[in-house]
Specification:
The complex is a heterodimer of chains A (462) and B (432). Chain A contains 17 helices and 11 strands. Chain A is of the alpha+beta class and 462 residues long. In chain A, the strands form 2 sheets. In chain A, strands 1-2-6-3-5-4 form a 6-stranded mixed sheet, sandwiched between helices. The radius of gyration of chain A is 24 Å and the shape is globular. By secondary structure, chain B is an alpha+beta fold. In chain B, helix 10 packs across helix 13 and helix 10 crosses helix 17. Classes of the chains: A alpha+beta (462), B alpha+beta (432).
């Protein structure tokens, strides 16, 4: 690693960043406060801004039947005031500092974030620390907000045919594992949810020892640590509820589900249970299989000339749209390898299904080419650099991995591990996991819209 | 190891020094007449380019609706003898990403590449811009796909409401045309239509080239020159017709079995560079643009729990772009929600905003400025907009000053002159 210091700073910067996979990641630093809260900082001095994210290890994965959606409802309630900050004030204080803020809930986590000019980082920490311990959930605020969440469910799921199919697909694929339940919750559970349910969730999971603070931006790591100690340090850790291991029993035969909804185009989702990366792999297969599945997904649909689109959309016009997906990381240690598509005019979902399976069979019998492997790798190498253009995305990656129980260090290894995958390994995972007994298929059967449906009642007043 | 650590510290402090400087935009014209806007930035070994043409959907007519979109799309599916597979593969081989946008005014082709691969990436990119082949078989295939998409869109409440809204607001003006076209016009589309559209609108003189990234000005000049010189010469492109303002309300109720009603209200709003831009922008932040802290969100969502999302925005365009208010709510309560929205607008028009609200709005907009330009991607988009709409070169430098000047009286005055709730377009899909 020879770097001449007498070059102009621009050349030095370029050279160092060309080595980014090593040096850029090395800039990430990790700490643990005495109350168990993790703090991870990535300095990025490209613009005078900062992204601050608080990640809780609490998501729909931790919910129980009858209370689905409570993780997400609590996320909404987190904006409804604490002992010292009135309802709605959180957002007003961040806005007054020029900040943007929001939150999101997934199966594996709930994350709250602010994006601010760098000098306002203390405000963000002060407010987050406050609502980590002092949230007030009143019955009145809950009663209004649960209606908002029901509107959100209608908007996200009820009126979107493909979302409905996906919900049914998950429910059919996971019979025992909580990934079978929707993050937003079932409507019945939302209708019957109480403020007490939200309070219980908050009491159980919102504690420094169940949270990770991720800060990316034009900051000094030691300053961030000092602030974190000041604001989050005094919070008391809690004894967290025991998390029982939850596994999905092995699937022993294909499953099918059909969803009817208003629309014109059919839709098909095909999924196979697949392994995830493990923080501590104990067999060689556990080490490499997830990377091979990632490569398989890239070969099938990493770009518009990848196999599925090239063959099924462009060459054979069997599908209007088609894609494959696999996510190698999850806290629930369950993954799916999915294929989705919309049949072309005059083609049925059955024909599309046959065509998709034929593409999988081709890989099982013939493997993939070196050119295809190189292309997947080129995409990963480039993406590793491109993502540095977004501080928010860098924070997302770190926070997700940490909250799922991996380490951000996985980001360092990832490109090299992926590069090591061979055609034979791709074939092997296809043969092992993409088999009929392990397959679930959900299809949309589009229904004509009732032409007699008319708006009832009076025309709008203004 | 020690040596490496030392270098990291040294470089990050140097980078920090230049990051605090304002965005330095360089502007020139290529020998073929394209306008270039360039920002040199060596922080990351990447190059972003966006080439913009006045070739948006408003260049279509009722009879040719969809040609603008299909032309832009087909350019990427065959060029200089390379077929679609070869084009995609050449980009994929080097991890380059081809992107683009189409709106009412503008068609943009974007490319992001590692600088180490820029020569290969730009070669293919230029073929797409200079020598599109428009293969007949691919046109036929894509027509089928587009028609299927249009048929599906015609069943979904969100797309039904958007389409009806733009039609009602713009009537005979080309801003009313759907970017995706209509089933009949797509079916009738011929190859010659695309070739003629390309020759007419993708000209060197009309192109605006935005560039940012790890290159010197000399390198940027060469890249821009290469992009520009291969484009059609063409003749001067006509100006877009002005938008006429609605003289009466236009209220539409469209039946749909969805569980939520989709409601859109609006009126032709503002142009890019409009004299009223800043009072309307700041005022709208208070009305419905400021996320969780806007009046509409406060009244409709926070106080009453009627919606998940309610918003308003001005979309400034070459001519008067839409001012739009939107919400979705359980169909049984559509009437109640609409009443609250209308009352909120009426009060806003009548009383304007308070000094306290204005202070909070300015504080957010001015304080949030650094986040507008914190990535190459965002700066690239500003370069395109500044160039395409010929905004002042000092647009970004002046932004906060202009916001700071806005007064409560200006907001009230601008809204009352420019926004006429009595003549709003109001589209509701799926109300009870």
């Amino acid at each position: 690693m020879q770097i001449k210091l007498k070059n102009s700073y621009i050349q030095i910067a370029t050279l160092l960043l060309a080595l980014a996979p090593v040096l850029g990641q090395a800039a990430i630093q990790e700490f643990k406060l005495s109350n168990g809260m993790k703090v991870i900082v990535q300095e990025d001095h490209r613009a005078p801004v900062v992204v601050s994210q608080v990640w809780y290890r609490a998501g729909s994965l931790d919910e129980v039947n009858g209370k689905t959606g409570v993780a997400h409802v609590l996320e909404h309630m987190m904006f409804k005031g604490t002992k010292s900050v009135a309802a709605g004030q959180f957002s007003r204080l961040v806005a007054a500092a020029g900040g943007k803020e929001n939150a999101f809930t997934g199966t594996d986590y709930t994350c709250y974030f602010q994006q601010l000019e760098k000098s306002h980082l203390p405000l963000s920490m002060k407010l987050e620390a406050d609502r980590m311990q002092n949230l007030v959930i009143t019955d009145a605020e809950f009663a209004k907000e649960i209606k908002v969440v029901m509107e959100e469910r209608r908007w996200r799921t009820e009126d979107k045919p493909q979302s409905k199919v996906n919900e049914q697909f998950q429910a059919t694929t996971f019979n025992a594992h909580p990934y079978g339940r929707p993050v937003v919750g079932y409507m019945n559970d939302l209708e019957n949810m109480t403020a007490a349910d939200a309070r219980e969730w908050y009491k159980n999971w919102y504690a420094p020892n169940n949270a990770t603070l991720v800060v990316v931006g034009d900051v000094k790591t030691q300053d961030v640590l000092k602030l974190a100690k000041h604001y989050f340090g005094p919070l008391k850790s809690k004894v967290l509820p025991a998390r029982k291991p939850q596994t999905e029993p092995a699937q022993i035969g294909e499953r099918r589900v059909v969803v009817k909804a208003p629309g014109k185009l059919p839709y098909l989702v095909m999924g196979f249970h697949a392994p995830t990366l493990l923080p501590k792999a104990t067999t060689p297969e556990q080490e490499w299989e997830p990377y091979a599945l990632d490569v398989l997904s890239g070969v099938l649909s990493g770009n518009d000339s990848a196999r599925l689109n090239q063959k099924l959309v462009r060459e054979n016009s069997i599908a209007l749209d088609v894609g494959a997906g696999y996510d190698s990381t999850s806290r629930g240690r369950q993954a799916l390898f999915e294929l989705v598509g919309t049949p072309a005019e005059g083609k049925t979902v059955a024909e599309l299904e046959t065509a998709l399976i034929a593409q999988i069979d081709l890989i099982k019998s013939g493997g993939v080419t070196q050119t295809e492997l190189d292309r997947v790798k080129a995409a990963v190498i480039a993406a590793d650099v491109y993502q540095r253009d977004s501080m928010f995305y860098q924070g997302m990656q770190i926070g997700q991995l940490e909250t799922m129980g991996y380490s951000w260090r996985l980001l360092e290894e990832y490109p090299e591990r992926l590069k090591a995958i061979t055609s034979e390994q791709v074939q092997e995972v296809a043969k092992k996991y993409l088999v009929k007994d392990n397959m679930t298929i959900a299809t949309l059967d589009p229904q004509p819209i009732d032409p007699n449906a008319k708006p009832q009642g009076k025309p709008h007043s203004r | 190891m020690k040596k490496i650590q030392f270098l990291i510290i040294l470089v990050s402090s140097l980078v920090a020094l230049c990051a605090n400087a304002a965005v330095k935009i360089q502007h020139w014209q290529t020998s073929s007449g394209s306008q270039v806007y360039f920002v040199e930035n060596h922080d990351l070994p990447i190059l972003d380019i966006s080439v913009n043409f006045p070739a948006g959907s408003s260049r279509d007519t009722k009879q040719t609706s969809g040609v603008a979109g299909v032309t832009k799309y087909l350019m990427t599916l065959g060029a200089d003898g390379m077929n679609e597979e070869a084009i995609t593969n050449q980009f994929a081989d080097i991890g380059a990403i081809l992107g683009g946008e189409l709106d009412l005014d503008r068609a943009a082709f974007k490319l992001r590449t590692l600088t180490s691969e820029q020569a290969k990436a730009l070669t293919v990119f230029n073929k797409i811009l200079h020598k599109p082949d428009f293969p007949q078989t691919i046109l036929e295939r894509e027509k089928t796909r587009i028609v299927a998409g249009l048929q599906e869109a015609a069943t979904q409440p969100e797309s039904i409401s958007n389409k009806a809204f733009m039609k009602a607001m713009y009537g005979e003006h080309p801003y009313s045309l759907d970017e995706s076209g209509e089933i009949e016009t797509i079916n009738a589309m011929k190859l010659e239509d695309l070739v003629a559209f390309y020759q007419k609108y993708y000209t060197a003189k009309s192109a605006v080239i935005a560039l940012i990234g790890d290159m010197t000005e000399t390198q940027a000049r060469t890249i821009a020159e290469d992009v520009s010189k291969g484009l059609p010469q063409g003749v001067a492109i006509s100006k877009m017709a002005p938008v006429s303002l609605p003289q009466a309300p236009n209220i539409q109720n469209i039946a749909h079995p969805a569980s939520q009603a989709h409601i859109l209200l609006g009126y032709p709003g503002i142009k890019r560079g409009d004299a009223d831009y800043f009072p309307l922008y700041v005022g709208n932040y208070i009305l419905g643009g400021g996320g969780f802290v806007s009046r509409l969100t406060e009244e409709v969502r926070e106080k009453r729990g009627l919606v998940y999302s309610v918003y308003s925005y001005f979309m400034p365009m070459g001519e008067l772009g839409p001012f739009q208010i939107g919400l979705q709510t359980k169909k049984e309560q559509a009437g109640d929600a609409l009443k609250v929205v209308n009352a909120t607008i009426a009060k806003f028009m009548q009383n304007g905003v308070t000094e306290k609200e204005l202070k909070a709005a300015k504080s957010n907009i001015i304080g949030g400025f650094p986040m507008r330009i914190d990535s190459n991607n965002k700066i690239l988009d500003y370069l395109s907009i500044i160039g395409f709409y010929q905004l002042p070169m000092t647009y970004l430098d002046d932004f906060n000053k202009e916001v700071a000047k806005v007064s409560t009286a200006q907001i009230k005055d601008a809204f009352n002159r420019r926004v006429k709730p009595a003549n709003f377009v109001a589209v509701t899909v799926g109300a009870d």
